[in-house]
Amino acid sequence: MTAVDEARPATSPGARPETGTVLRFPAGFRWGTATAAYQIEGGAAEDGRTPSIWDTFSRTPGKVRNGDTGDIAADHLHRMPDDVRLMKELGVTDYRFSVSWPRVQPTGRGPAVERGLDFYRRLVDELLAAGIRPVATLYHWDLPQELEDAGGWPERDTAHRFAEYAGLVAGALGDRVSTWTTLNEPWCAAFLGYGNGVHAPGRTSDLAALRAAHHLNLAHGAGAKVLRERLPETAEISLTLNLHALRPLTDTEADRDAVRRIDAVANRIFLDPVFHGRLPEDLVADTAAVTDWSFVKDGDLEVTSTPIDSLGINYYSPSVVSAGTSESPSPWAGAEQHVAFTPAAGPRTAMDWPVDADGLYELLTRLRDELPSVPVLVTENGAAYDDYADPEGDVHDPERVAYLDGHLGAVHRAIEDGADVRGYFLWSLLDNFEWAYGYSKRFGIVHVDFASQRRTVKDSARWYAEVIGRGGLARP
């Protein structure tokens, strides 16, 4: 009997009848959960997989807490059918997973490794058999190390390599996967990976970060073109951005200008090339001391603005910005000498991030106003808390339930106010490898004992199953 078999079901057959009001979501609303390959799969050296930048980074002393790696992670590679069964018990309609580039195309070049693709074929088949829509993300930060050795995202050839890889995966899964995301959070890949170096590959260069951001936009557009060519006409092609909800510390011109600077390098550096085929003029001016942007070639912005069908946004907390100076090295290329950040007030998660659902509402209504024709999916939202299995084997996480309830309430309010939000993907299904934090932070609604790999359904998972079952949030 597996650990999942021993766990109590995610749903409660004898659940009490609801009383009061239900904040109902639109018919067809997509109730999902999400994961990422390096964070859960394990099997780092199986099926021909070669190292990614995160394999290398996590083995670099001092880069990841406790020296943790994703070698085993949540062992999803071997426990996938049980994990899909858990999702079916929850009643989720959609599952957003990422494909490991080095598992499918180990060197980032040439033909696919069929053994690597076979895992994703099995995953998709399991999901479809469970009545769950597969949502495939092609890139969630695990660049093949050989491509980094050749220059990584600061080099434009990496964008061409990504488009080739996108075609390989589309050819294998395109007959069964109807929703595709090119990139997850290119801001993190560019500015945390190449700007302040807290993520893989750990480089610290404003110029490299800006070059990487452009080539990630180029990769998205080139990948979207290939997907459009290879997939059925009904396929949904998307991009996921971690847009920053920004607020000035005071209502002064200096603090408002600090918000403008961060909005340019955090949000509009992706939104403008993707949806308007242009670079923000103020971004170019702000970064003139770093680069003349000559790496943007003729025709690039036509590629970056390849039409897509929806936009995914990831949100966890807002940022309060003021005039000042950021710590060095900084992820805010061109803005370090002009901006500072102040912790927002209120309760905080185990990540020390403020809990503020209004920031999500602000982002959704901003997109309603700025991109009215683009449907939106909330592709990540969740919280880490220091939860644990009690002596009875249960995991009670009321803080996470409160966080999720508040943020889903913000989504509902945005929909009521005209935002075209089509779905919500809770981050995350499983406790996992949390990047530079290793295994010290738990975002999952399913607890993972990493020594035994035993899964324990948390109270938040049962709460989410009830929300899905009723199609909305219960209110007294």
TrEMBL record:
Amino acids binding substrate: Q39, H140, N184, Y316, W427, E434, W435
Reactions catalysed: Hydrolysis of terminal, non-reducing beta-D-glucosyl residues with release of beta-D-glucose
GO cellular component, one term: cytosol
Keywords: Carbohydrate metabolism, Cellulose degradation, Glycosidase, Hydrolase, Polysaccharide degradation
Enzyme class: hydrolase
InterPro entries reported in the protein's UniProt record: GH, GH_1_N_CS, Glyco_hydro_1, Glyco_hydro_1_AS, Glyco_hydro_1_beta-glucosidase
Entry GO MF terms: beta-glucosidase activity
Keyword Hydrolase: yes
Span list, region Disordered: 1-21
PROSITE patterns: GLYCOSYL_HYDROL_F1_1 (PS00572), GLYCOSYL_HYDROL_F1_2 (PS00653)
UniProt EC number: 3.2.1.21
GO biological process: cellulose catabolic process
Domain of life, source organism: Bacteria
Enzyme active site: E185 (proton donor), E380 (nucleophile)
Coiled coil: none
PANTHER family: GLYCOSYL HYDROLASE (PTHR10353), LP05116P (PTHR10353:SF36)
Family matches, as NCBIfam families: BGL (TIGR03356)
Similarity section: Belongs to the glycosyl hydrolase 1 family.
Descriptive protein name: Beta-glucosidase
